[in-house]
Amino acid sequence: MTKKLFIKTYGCQMNAYDSARMADLLAPLGYGATETAEGADMVILNTCHIREKAVEKVYSELGRIAKAKRGKPDMLVAVAGCVAQAEGAEIVARAKAVDLVVGPQSYHRLPEMIARHARAGGHVLETDFPALEKFDALPQAVSDTGVSAFLTVQEGCDKFCTFCVVPYTRGAEQSRSPESILAEARALGARGARELVLLGQNVNAYRGTDEHGRDWSLARLIGTIAEIPSIWRIRYTTSHPRDMGDDLIAAHGDIEKLMPFLHLPVQSGSDSVLAAMNRQHTADDYLRLIDRLRAARPDLAFSSDFIVGFPGESDADFEATMDLVRRVEFAQCFSFKYSPRPGTPAAAAKKQIGEAVKDQRLQALQKLLLSQQDAANERAIGKVLPVLFEKSGRGKHQVIGRSPYLHPVHAEGGAGLIGQIHNVRIQARTANSLKGALLESLPA
Ligand code: SAH
Ligand code: SF4
Ligand code: F3S
Prior knowledge:
Blueprint: E1 3-9, H1 13-26, E2 31-33, E3 42-47, H2 52-70, E4 76-80, H3 81-94, E5 100-102, H4 110-120, E6 124-126, H5 133-137, E7 148-152, E8 154-155, H6 166-170, E9 174-175, H7 178-190, E10 195-199, E11 207-209, E12 215-217, H8 218-225, E13 233-237, H9 246-254, E14 261-263, H10 271-276, H11 283-296, E15 301-308, H12 315-328, E16 332-337, H13 355-380, E17 384-392, E18 398-402, E19 408-412, E20 421-429, E21 434-441
Parallel strand pairs: 1-2, 1-3, 3-4, 4-5, 5-6, 7-10, 10-13, 14-15, 15-16, 19-21
Antiparallel strand pairs: 8-9, 11-12, 17-18, 17-20, 18-19, 20-21
Helix pairs in contact: 8-9, 12-13
Protein backbone atom coordinates (compact mmCIF):
# COMPACT_ATOMS: atom_id res chain seq x y z
CA MET A 1 0.00 0.00 0.00
CA THR A 2 1.28 3.47 -0.75
CA LYS A 3 1.95 5.88 2.04
CA LYS A 4 0.76 9.46 1.77
CA LEU A 5 3.33 12.23 1.51
CA PHE A 6 2.38 15.90 1.93
CA ILE A 7 5.04 18.47 1.01
CA LYS A 8 4.50 22.17 1.57
CA THR A 9 6.99 24.46 -0.13
CA TYR A 10 7.93 28.01 0.86
CA GLY A 11 10.47 30.40 -0.63
CA CYS A 12 12.24 30.39 -3.95
CA GLN A 13 12.20 28.16 -7.02
CA MET A 14 15.18 26.24 -5.70
CA ASN A 15 12.99 25.02 -2.87
CA ALA A 16 10.34 24.01 -5.42
CA TYR A 17 12.99 22.01 -7.27
CA ASP A 18 14.19 20.43 -4.00
CA SER A 19 10.62 19.47 -3.04
CA ALA A 20 10.20 17.62 -6.34
CA ARG A 21 13.53 15.85 -5.76
CA MET A 22 12.46 14.82 -2.24
CA ALA A 23 9.25 13.36 -3.67
CA ASP A 24 11.33 11.40 -6.22
CA LEU A 25 13.64 10.19 -3.49
CA LEU A 26 10.79 8.93 -1.30
CA ALA A 27 8.77 7.30 -4.10
CA PRO A 28 10.78 4.02 -3.92
CA LEU A 29 9.92 3.87 -0.19
CA GLY A 30 6.24 3.74 -1.12
CA TYR A 31 5.35 7.40 -0.64
CA GLY A 32 2.91 9.04 -3.06
CA ALA A 33 1.80 12.70 -3.06
CA THR A 34 -1.30 13.85 -1.18
CA GLU A 35 -2.93 17.28 -0.98
CA THR A 36 -3.35 17.85 2.77
CA ALA A 37 -1.48 17.23 6.00
CA GLU A 38 -4.54 15.58 7.58
CA GLY A 39 -4.18 11.83 7.21
CA ALA A 40 -0.71 12.03 5.68
CA ASP A 41 1.89 9.45 6.73
CA MET A 42 4.66 11.95 6.24
CA VAL A 43 4.66 15.75 6.14
CA ILE A 44 7.59 17.79 4.89
CA LEU A 45 7.72 21.56 5.30
CA ASN A 46 10.35 22.86 2.90
CA THR A 47 11.05 26.21 4.50
CA CYS A 48 12.41 29.67 3.70
CA HIS A 49 14.45 31.90 6.02
CA ILE A 50 14.77 34.98 3.81
CA ARG A 51 12.44 37.33 5.75
CA GLU A 52 10.95 37.14 9.23
CA LYS A 53 7.43 36.66 7.86
CA ALA A 54 8.48 33.55 5.95
CA VAL A 55 9.79 32.02 9.16
CA GLU A 56 6.66 32.94 11.16
CA LYS A 57 4.55 31.11 8.58
CA VAL A 58 6.53 27.94 9.18
CA TYR A 59 6.02 27.98 12.94
CA SER A 60 2.29 28.62 12.61
CA GLU A 61 2.00 25.77 10.07
CA LEU A 62 3.87 23.53 12.52
CA GLY A 63 1.15 24.31 15.08
CA ARG A 64 -1.51 23.05 12.64
CA ILE A 65 0.56 19.97 11.82
CA ALA A 66 0.93 19.14 15.51
CA LYS A 67 -2.88 19.05 15.71
CA ALA A 68 -3.13 16.76 12.68
CA LYS A 69 -0.53 14.50 14.28
CA ARG A 70 -2.66 14.10 17.40
CA GLY A 71 -5.17 12.25 15.22
CA LYS A 72 -2.40 10.19 13.63
CA PRO A 73 0.43 9.69 16.13
CA ASP A 74 2.68 7.72 13.74
CA MET A 75 2.76 10.63 11.28
CA LEU A 76 6.34 11.54 10.41
CA VAL A 77 7.03 15.29 10.40
CA ALA A 78 10.11 16.72 8.69
CA VAL A 79 11.31 20.30 8.45
CA ALA A 80 13.57 20.83 5.45
CA GLY A 81 15.05 23.87 3.71
CA CYS A 82 16.60 27.07 4.94
CA VAL A 83 14.86 27.41 8.34
CA ALA A 84 15.96 23.85 9.10
CA GLN A 85 19.52 24.83 8.25
CA ALA A 86 19.47 28.08 10.23
CA GLU A 87 17.40 27.10 13.27
CA GLY A 88 17.49 23.29 13.40
CA ALA A 89 18.09 23.03 17.14
CA GLU A 90 15.49 25.70 17.91
CA ILE A 91 12.87 23.87 15.85
CA VAL A 92 13.50 20.67 17.77
CA ALA A 93 13.17 22.54 21.07
CA ARG A 94 10.07 24.55 20.09
CA ALA A 95 8.08 22.11 17.99
CA LYS A 96 7.69 18.75 19.66
CA ALA A 97 5.82 17.26 16.70
CA VAL A 98 8.93 17.46 14.50
CA ASP A 99 10.81 14.19 13.97
CA LEU A 100 13.33 15.06 11.27
CA VAL A 101 15.25 18.26 10.50
CA VAL A 102 17.15 18.31 7.24
CA GLY A 103 19.12 21.12 5.59
CA PRO A 104 19.01 21.91 1.87
CA GLN A 105 22.33 20.20 1.20
CA SER A 106 21.54 16.98 3.09
CA TYR A 107 18.07 15.93 2.01
CA HIS A 108 19.42 13.07 -0.10
CA ARG A 109 19.91 11.40 3.30
CA LEU A 110 16.17 11.39 4.07
CA PRO A 111 15.65 7.62 3.48
CA GLU A 112 18.48 6.85 5.87
CA MET A 113 17.12 9.37 8.40
CA ILE A 114 13.67 7.78 8.22
CA ALA A 115 15.22 4.36 8.88
CA ARG A 116 17.24 5.74 11.81
CA HIS A 117 14.11 7.31 13.28
CA ALA A 118 12.19 4.03 12.90
CA ARG A 119 14.98 2.17 14.73
CA ALA A 120 15.80 4.58 17.51
CA GLY A 121 12.99 7.18 17.64
CA GLY A 122 13.78 10.69 18.86
CA HIS A 123 14.82 13.60 16.66
CA VAL A 124 17.11 13.08 13.71
CA LEU A 125 18.97 16.18 12.52
CA GLU A 126 21.15 16.56 9.41
CA THR A 127 22.47 20.02 8.56
CA ASP A 128 25.94 19.40 7.08
CA PHE A 129 27.18 20.89 3.84
CA PRO A 130 28.60 17.83 2.08
CA ALA A 131 30.28 18.98 -1.15
CA LEU A 132 27.96 18.27 -4.08
CA GLU A 133 27.34 14.78 -2.74
CA LYS A 134 23.63 15.52 -2.96
CA PHE A 135 23.25 15.60 -6.73
CA ASP A 136 25.20 12.35 -7.17
CA ALA A 137 23.02 10.67 -4.57
CA LEU A 138 19.65 11.81 -5.95
CA PRO A 139 17.67 9.70 -8.40
CA GLN A 140 16.96 10.97 -11.93
CA ALA A 141 13.86 13.15 -12.04
CA VAL A 142 10.81 10.89 -12.02
CA SER A 143 8.06 13.18 -10.80
CA ASP A 144 5.69 14.88 -13.21
CA THR A 145 7.89 17.47 -14.79
CA GLY A 146 5.28 19.66 -16.43
CA VAL A 147 5.83 21.60 -19.64
CA SER A 148 8.13 24.06 -17.90
CA ALA A 149 10.61 22.38 -15.55
CA PHE A 150 13.15 23.67 -13.05
CA LEU A 151 16.70 22.38 -13.17
CA THR A 152 19.15 23.41 -10.45
CA VAL A 153 22.62 23.95 -11.92
CA GLN A 154 24.31 25.94 -9.16
CA GLU A 155 23.78 26.33 -5.45
CA GLY A 156 24.95 28.52 -2.65
CA CYS A 157 26.34 32.02 -2.54
CA ASP A 158 29.69 33.64 -1.76
CA LYS A 159 28.50 37.23 -2.11
CA PHE A 160 27.49 37.95 1.49
CA CYS A 161 25.17 40.87 0.88
CA THR A 162 24.87 42.33 4.37
CA PHE A 163 21.07 41.77 4.60
CA CYS A 164 20.94 38.18 3.38
CA VAL A 165 20.84 34.75 5.04
CA VAL A 166 21.40 32.67 1.90
CA PRO A 167 25.20 32.29 2.22
CA TYR A 168 24.58 30.85 5.70
CA THR A 169 21.65 28.60 4.83
CA ARG A 170 22.83 27.33 1.44
CA GLY A 171 26.58 27.42 1.90
CA ALA A 172 29.32 28.29 -0.57
CA GLU A 173 28.83 28.55 -4.34
CA GLN A 174 28.97 25.17 -6.02
CA SER A 175 28.28 24.22 -9.63
CA ARG A 176 27.08 20.84 -10.85
CA SER A 177 29.03 19.15 -13.63
CA PRO A 178 27.84 19.93 -17.17
CA GLU A 179 27.47 16.20 -17.84
CA SER A 180 25.00 15.65 -15.00
CA ILE A 181 23.03 18.78 -15.96
CA LEU A 182 22.84 17.77 -19.63
CA ALA A 183 21.72 14.24 -18.68
CA GLU A 184 18.96 15.72 -16.50
CA ALA A 185 17.98 18.19 -19.25
CA ARG A 186 17.60 15.32 -21.76
CA ALA A 187 15.64 13.25 -19.24
CA LEU A 188 13.29 16.17 -18.56
CA GLY A 189 12.82 16.68 -22.31
CA ALA A 190 12.02 12.99 -22.73
CA ARG A 191 9.36 13.29 -20.01
CA GLY A 192 7.61 16.17 -21.77
CA ALA A 193 9.37 19.31 -20.54
CA ARG A 194 9.63 21.85 -23.37
CA GLU A 195 11.03 24.72 -21.33
CA LEU A 196 13.85 24.50 -18.81
CA VAL A 197 14.43 27.11 -16.14
CA LEU A 198 18.03 26.80 -14.96
CA LEU A 199 18.22 27.63 -11.27
CA GLY A 200 20.85 28.88 -8.87
CA GLN A 201 21.04 31.37 -6.01
CA ASN A 202 23.63 32.99 -8.26
CA VAL A 203 23.01 31.11 -11.44
CA ASN A 204 25.25 33.27 -13.61
CA ALA A 205 28.17 32.54 -11.28
CA TYR A 206 27.88 29.00 -12.70
CA ARG A 207 31.31 27.54 -13.42
CA GLY A 208 31.14 23.82 -14.01
CA THR A 209 34.04 21.51 -14.73
CA ASP A 210 33.57 18.69 -17.22
CA GLU A 211 35.23 15.27 -17.11
CA HIS A 212 38.18 16.60 -19.15
CA GLY A 213 38.79 19.30 -16.55
CA ARG A 214 37.51 22.09 -18.79
CA ASP A 215 35.54 25.00 -17.34
CA TRP A 216 32.02 25.71 -18.54
CA SER A 217 30.29 29.07 -18.17
CA LEU A 218 26.51 29.45 -17.97
CA ALA A 219 26.51 30.76 -21.56
CA ARG A 220 28.19 27.58 -22.82
CA LEU A 221 25.81 25.43 -20.80
CA ILE A 222 22.79 27.26 -22.26
CA GLY A 223 24.23 26.92 -25.78
CA THR A 224 24.64 23.16 -25.32
CA ILE A 225 21.19 22.66 -23.79
CA ALA A 226 19.80 24.59 -26.78
CA GLU A 227 21.04 21.71 -29.00
CA ILE A 228 18.61 19.26 -27.34
CA PRO A 229 15.74 19.04 -29.87
CA SER A 230 12.95 18.41 -27.33
CA ILE A 231 13.85 21.57 -25.38
CA TRP A 232 12.39 24.66 -27.09
CA ARG A 233 12.82 27.36 -24.49
CA ILE A 234 15.47 28.14 -21.88
CA ARG A 235 15.42 30.63 -19.00
CA TYR A 236 17.68 31.12 -15.99
CA THR A 237 17.29 32.71 -12.58
CA THR A 238 18.53 34.36 -10.30
CA SER A 239 21.41 36.39 -11.64
CA HIS A 240 23.72 38.82 -9.92
CA PRO A 241 24.71 41.94 -11.90
CA ARG A 242 28.37 41.30 -11.04
CA ASP A 243 28.40 37.92 -12.77
CA MET A 244 26.85 39.00 -16.05
CA GLY A 245 29.75 37.93 -18.30
CA ASP A 246 30.32 39.06 -21.89
CA ASP A 247 29.49 35.62 -23.28
CA LEU A 248 26.21 35.53 -21.38
CA ILE A 249 25.24 38.96 -22.66
CA ALA A 250 26.11 37.84 -26.20
CA ALA A 251 24.09 34.63 -25.70
CA HIS A 252 20.95 36.76 -25.40
CA GLY A 253 21.51 37.88 -28.98
CA ASP A 254 22.78 34.58 -30.36
CA ILE A 255 20.74 31.76 -28.85
CA GLU A 256 17.22 31.76 -30.18
CA LYS A 257 15.90 29.36 -27.52
CA LEU A 258 17.07 31.67 -24.74
CA MET A 259 13.94 33.65 -23.88
CA PRO A 260 14.01 37.48 -23.83
CA PHE A 261 13.25 37.93 -20.15
CA LEU A 262 15.83 38.48 -17.44
CA HIS A 263 15.42 38.72 -13.68
CA LEU A 264 18.31 40.87 -12.52
CA PRO A 265 17.99 42.02 -8.90
CA VAL A 266 19.40 45.45 -8.11
CA GLN A 267 17.93 46.03 -4.60
CA SER A 268 18.54 49.81 -4.58
CA GLY A 269 19.37 52.71 -6.87
CA SER A 270 21.52 54.52 -4.29
CA ASP A 271 25.28 54.03 -4.42
CA SER A 272 25.73 54.45 -0.68
CA VAL A 273 23.00 51.91 0.07
CA LEU A 274 24.43 49.53 -2.55
CA ALA A 275 27.83 49.85 -0.87
CA ALA A 276 26.36 49.26 2.59
CA MET A 277 24.58 46.20 1.19
CA ASN A 278 27.92 44.93 -0.18
CA ARG A 279 26.43 44.55 -3.65
CA GLN A 280 29.80 45.54 -5.16
CA HIS A 281 28.44 47.63 -8.00
CA THR A 282 27.01 51.13 -8.47
CA ALA A 283 23.65 52.20 -9.88
CA ASP A 284 25.44 53.37 -12.99
CA ASP A 285 27.12 49.96 -13.44
CA TYR A 286 23.64 48.44 -13.41
CA LEU A 287 22.24 50.93 -15.92
CA ARG A 288 25.16 50.34 -18.28
CA LEU A 289 24.67 46.60 -17.98
CA ILE A 290 21.01 47.00 -18.93
CA ASP A 291 22.09 49.04 -21.97
CA ARG A 292 24.54 46.34 -23.07
CA LEU A 293 21.91 43.63 -22.68
CA ARG A 294 19.40 45.69 -24.66
CA ALA A 295 22.00 46.22 -27.35
CA ALA A 296 22.42 42.43 -27.60
CA ARG A 297 18.66 41.76 -27.54
CA PRO A 298 16.55 44.90 -27.99
CA ASP A 299 13.25 43.34 -26.88
CA LEU A 300 14.67 41.94 -23.63
CA ALA A 301 12.20 42.44 -20.75
CA PHE A 302 13.60 42.94 -17.25
CA SER A 303 12.44 42.21 -13.75
CA SER A 304 14.19 42.91 -10.49
CA ASP A 305 14.10 42.72 -6.69
CA PHE A 306 14.12 45.77 -4.43
CA ILE A 307 14.55 46.27 -0.70
CA VAL A 308 13.20 49.47 0.87
CA GLY A 309 14.11 50.71 4.34
CA PHE A 310 17.59 49.23 4.44
CA PRO A 311 19.43 50.62 7.53
CA GLY A 312 20.51 54.22 6.87
CA GLU A 313 18.37 54.64 3.72
CA SER A 314 17.55 58.37 3.46
CA ASP A 315 14.76 60.01 1.46
CA ALA A 316 17.37 60.89 -1.17
CA ASP A 317 18.56 57.26 -1.31
CA PHE A 318 15.01 56.12 -1.83
CA GLU A 319 14.51 58.74 -4.55
CA ALA A 320 17.59 57.34 -6.30
CA THR A 321 15.86 53.93 -6.36
CA MET A 322 12.72 55.49 -7.86
CA ASP A 323 14.92 57.22 -10.42
CA LEU A 324 16.64 53.99 -11.42
CA VAL A 325 13.25 52.31 -11.86
CA ARG A 326 12.08 55.16 -14.11
CA ARG A 327 15.18 54.82 -16.23
CA VAL A 328 15.07 51.05 -16.72
CA GLU A 329 11.32 50.47 -17.23
CA PHE A 330 10.78 47.02 -15.72
CA ALA A 331 8.24 44.52 -17.01
CA GLN A 332 7.68 42.98 -13.60
CA CYS A 333 9.22 43.35 -10.11
CA PHE A 334 9.38 42.15 -6.55
CA SER A 335 9.84 44.60 -3.71
CA PHE A 336 10.21 44.02 -0.01
CA LYS A 337 10.55 45.91 3.24
CA TYR A 338 13.94 45.28 4.78
CA SER A 339 13.67 42.52 7.36
CA PRO A 340 16.55 42.27 9.85
CA ARG A 341 17.83 38.70 9.86
CA PRO A 342 19.65 37.20 12.84
CA GLY A 343 23.39 36.90 12.30
CA THR A 344 23.62 39.19 9.26
CA PRO A 345 25.71 42.40 9.51
CA ALA A 346 22.88 44.78 8.54
CA ALA A 347 20.69 43.53 11.39
CA ALA A 348 23.24 44.97 13.82
CA ALA A 349 23.40 48.38 12.06
CA LYS A 350 22.41 51.32 14.25
CA LYS A 351 20.25 53.31 11.86
CA GLN A 352 17.30 50.96 11.43
CA ILE A 353 14.37 52.52 9.57
CA GLY A 354 10.93 52.74 11.20
CA GLU A 355 8.05 50.61 10.00
CA ALA A 356 5.93 53.60 8.90
CA VAL A 357 8.67 54.91 6.61
CA LYS A 358 9.23 51.41 5.19
CA ASP A 359 5.49 51.14 4.48
CA GLN A 360 5.38 54.51 2.75
CA ARG A 361 8.38 53.75 0.58
CA LEU A 362 7.14 50.30 -0.33
CA GLN A 363 3.78 51.73 -1.39
CA ALA A 364 5.35 54.43 -3.55
CA LEU A 365 7.75 51.98 -5.17
CA GLN A 366 5.08 49.36 -5.81
CA LYS A 367 2.83 51.96 -7.39
CA LEU A 368 5.56 52.93 -9.82
CA LEU A 369 6.52 49.32 -10.56
CA LEU A 370 2.89 48.38 -11.14
CA SER A 371 2.43 51.23 -13.58
CA GLN A 372 5.44 49.95 -15.53
CA GLN A 373 4.08 46.40 -15.48
CA ASP A 374 0.71 47.69 -16.73
CA ALA A 375 2.44 49.62 -19.50
CA ALA A 376 4.43 46.53 -20.54
CA ASN A 377 1.24 44.46 -20.67
CA GLU A 378 -0.57 47.22 -22.55
CA ARG A 379 2.18 47.27 -25.19
CA ALA A 380 1.54 43.56 -25.85
CA ILE A 381 -2.04 44.21 -26.96
CA GLY A 382 -2.43 43.80 -30.71
CA LYS A 383 0.82 41.82 -30.98
CA VAL A 384 1.12 38.19 -32.05
CA LEU A 385 3.16 36.23 -29.50
CA PRO A 386 4.26 32.58 -29.58
CA VAL A 387 2.77 31.01 -26.44
CA LEU A 388 3.94 27.75 -24.89
CA PHE A 389 0.81 26.26 -23.32
CA GLU A 390 1.33 24.74 -19.88
CA LYS A 391 -2.04 23.96 -18.29
CA SER A 392 -5.82 24.13 -18.49
CA GLY A 393 -7.58 27.25 -17.27
CA ARG A 394 -10.88 27.73 -15.46
CA GLY A 395 -13.13 27.71 -18.52
CA LYS A 396 -13.89 24.46 -20.34
CA HIS A 397 -11.58 25.11 -23.30
CA GLN A 398 -9.34 27.69 -21.70
CA VAL A 399 -5.60 27.03 -21.76
CA ILE A 400 -2.85 29.01 -20.09
CA GLY A 401 0.69 29.45 -21.27
CA ARG A 402 3.55 31.91 -21.31
CA SER A 403 4.79 34.37 -23.88
CA PRO A 404 8.56 34.64 -24.44
CA TYR A 405 8.42 37.64 -22.06
CA LEU A 406 6.93 35.44 -19.31
CA HIS A 407 3.44 37.01 -19.49
CA PRO A 408 0.80 34.46 -18.54
CA VAL A 409 -1.49 34.21 -21.61
CA HIS A 410 -5.04 32.83 -21.60
CA ALA A 411 -6.64 31.55 -24.79
CA GLU A 412 -9.50 29.28 -25.90
CA GLY A 413 -8.31 26.06 -27.53
CA GLY A 414 -8.58 23.00 -25.29
CA ALA A 415 -6.15 20.87 -23.29
CA GLY A 416 -4.80 19.32 -26.49
CA LEU A 417 -2.63 22.42 -26.87
CA ILE A 418 -0.70 21.78 -23.67
CA GLY A 419 2.97 21.21 -24.46
CA GLN A 420 2.71 23.06 -27.79
CA ILE A 421 3.69 26.51 -28.98
CA HIS A 422 1.03 28.47 -30.87
CA ASN A 423 0.81 32.01 -32.09
CA VAL A 424 -1.70 34.07 -30.15
CA ARG A 425 -3.00 37.52 -31.05
CA ILE A 426 -3.15 39.42 -27.77
CA GLN A 427 -6.50 41.20 -27.36
CA ALA A 428 -6.82 42.28 -23.74
CA ARG A 429 -5.13 42.31 -20.37
CA THR A 430 -6.09 41.77 -16.75
CA ALA A 431 -3.95 42.85 -13.78
CA ASN A 432 -1.41 40.06 -14.19
CA SER A 433 -2.13 38.30 -17.44
CA LEU A 434 -3.00 38.65 -21.12
CA LYS A 435 -5.87 37.26 -23.15
CA GLY A 436 -5.71 36.39 -26.80
CA ALA A 437 -6.97 34.35 -29.74
CA LEU A 438 -5.12 31.45 -31.30
CA LEU A 439 -3.61 31.83 -34.77
CA GLU A 440 -1.94 29.15 -36.86
CA SER A 441 0.48 26.78 -35.11
CA LEU A 442 4.24 27.02 -35.35
CA PRO A 443 6.30 24.05 -36.43
CA ALA A 444 7.81 22.61 -33.26
N1 SAH B 1 20.51 35.76 -5.12
C1 SAH B 1 19.55 36.72 -5.39
C2 SAH B 1 18.47 36.91 -4.33
C3 SAH B 1 18.01 35.85 -3.44
S1 SAH B 1 16.92 36.34 -2.18
C4 SAH B 1 20.25 38.05 -5.59
O1 SAH B 1 21.41 38.22 -5.35
O2 SAH B 1 19.61 38.98 -5.97
C5 SAH B 1 15.56 37.06 -3.05
C6 SAH B 1 15.30 38.47 -2.71
O3 SAH B 1 14.85 38.60 -1.38
C7 SAH B 1 16.51 39.39 -2.78
O4 SAH B 1 16.79 39.78 -4.08
C8 SAH B 1 16.09 40.53 -1.91
O5 SAH B 1 15.42 41.53 -2.64
C9 SAH B 1 15.14 39.89 -0.92
N2 SAH B 1 15.73 39.81 0.41
C10 SAH B 1 16.79 39.09 0.79
N3 SAH B 1 17.07 39.30 2.09
C11 SAH B 1 16.16 40.20 2.54
C12 SAH B 1 15.93 40.85 3.80
N4 SAH B 1 16.71 40.61 4.85
N5 SAH B 1 14.89 41.71 3.87
C13 SAH B 1 14.10 41.97 2.81
N6 SAH B 1 14.28 41.39 1.62
C14 SAH B 1 15.29 40.52 1.47
FE1 SF4 C 1 21.77 36.86 -0.90
FE2 SF4 C 1 23.36 38.61 -2.06
FE3 SF4 C 1 23.86 36.02 -2.30
FE4 SF4 C 1 21.77 37.09 -3.54
S1 SF4 C 1 23.92 37.57 -3.92
S2 SF4 C 1 21.78 35.19 -2.37
S3 SF4 C 1 21.10 38.64 -2.10
S4 SF4 C 1 23.96 37.20 -0.41
FE1 F3S D 1 14.31 31.23 1.03
FE2 F3S D 1 16.34 29.61 1.17
FE3 F3S D 1 15.32 30.24 -1.19
S1 F3S D 1 16.02 31.37 2.42
S2 F3S D 1 14.57 32.30 -0.85
S3 F3S D 1 14.30 29.13 0.40
S4 F3S D 1 17.46 29.92 -0.72
